[in-house]
């Protein structure tokens, strides 16, 4: 009877019910966080339109005003201190994001993730659209744009702890680095899509560069409300093994029994109420800080994210100023940095899975990134081929450690053995790590805005210094991993003993 089924149906039913739910959850959370980053990216593309070199443009004869140098700029960004104003707008978002992140994880442990994510995405869509409406409402107040960005930064803190907690609920440790490395490409995919969408409208009506991404993230919020499944137990699926070296059921494993996607959970999928209710008390903030490795990786991410977010917010303007591209071309070129970031995140996850050295993998990439940043600043704009190559390499080396820490490392620490099976620590641990990193994300663009008037060389020296500090902060963990490889202590995946 089964042989008469269509090939497509045979393929569908060859995978277990658990595998389909895992794959569906991975896809949904990928889509959700892609929309978060998609809505953050437009400001970096629009900067070069809000303030540009008006002397190279033909001034319309019917335009009032006497300033021939700033007639094409958007007030208040038409002043000499425009870089400081850009820095203020960036930091309104990033400081609010950094502060809110420390509280977001605590709320995420106590509020259903589906409602939490839905509310966050709907509000983020609202504030993203409000920034773009400033163009149509002819608003020229720096306070308006700073306030809207601050509120957007606050509501966007709902995203990261919630999606990592959701994925951590569905996937165990065995292949977490690789799976989450691939999954974490949502950051770069969101940045790329945000750049391309914003680039379509930036030169004609820059307000739409924000309104369209705002509508997209609000739409994914509605999708989240109707389809997200927070935990395997909610639909009768088997929970993952968090402390085994090998995943009991990897993503899309072939079904080894008669259970199929269309079958009911049955007794084989029922979870003992005694085991699932065990250790369900949410962890405290101080308790999460005491988990071995949380402090080191949090501080490392502070400097790693400083570098990554400086590129996120300032790379298009740097390319426009140094290589003299127009805003759309600079935005399109900057997406290559994110393409490299996708490769870097996947490679970092795969290598750390195979070696068991999360800290060592990050450290090696950070060490190599420092000279690459120096070379990019000095030779990166010599030719188109050099620019493309250096952007891809720098993107991989800068975003690789950042991606690994915010995904696999956070999930490992959030399901650490010292928690004795407490599954409600994941969101808090993720929020602490990413919240600390977000302090660096706020400092990077702020420092770039202050330093860039003195020359782009000084900005890159700041980035290289941050890169080296990030590496040094992992030295203790790297030392312990190396000792484990040399036989001084048992070699283990993840962070069983740090």
From TrEMBL:
Sequence ranges assigned to domain Major facilitator superfamily (MFS) profile in this UniProt record: 28-483
Concerning PANTHER family, the annotation shows: GLUCOSE-6-PHOSPHATE EXCHANGER SLC37A2 (PTHR43184:SF9), MAJOR FACILITATOR SUPERFAMILY TRANSPORTER 16, ISOFORM B (PTHR43184)
- Could you state a single Gene Ontology molecular function term? glucose 6-phosphate:phosphate antiporter activity
List the catalytic activities from the record: D-glucose 6-phosphate(in) + phosphate(out) = D-glucose 6-phosphate(out) + phosphate(in)
Record key words, sorted: Antiport, Endoplasmic reticulum, Glycoprotein, Membrane, Sugar transport, Transmembrane, Transmembrane helix, Transport
What is the designated name of this protein? Answer: Glucose-6-phosphate exchanger SLC37A2
Provide the transmembrane region boundaries: 20-38, 84-103, 115-137, 143-171, 183-202, 208-229, 297-315, 335-352, 359-379, 385-405, 425-447, 459-479
Instruction: State the Gene Ontology BP annotations.
Output: phosphate ion transmembrane transport
One Pfam family for this entry, by name?
A: MFS_1
Which species is this UniProt entry from? Oncorhynchus kisutch (Coho salmon)
Q: Which InterPro entries match?
A: MFS, MFS_dom, MFS_trans_sf, SLC37A1_2, Sugar_P_transporter
The entry sums up its family as follows: Belongs to the major facilitator superfamily. Organophosphate:Pi antiporter (OPA) (TC 2.A.1.4) family.
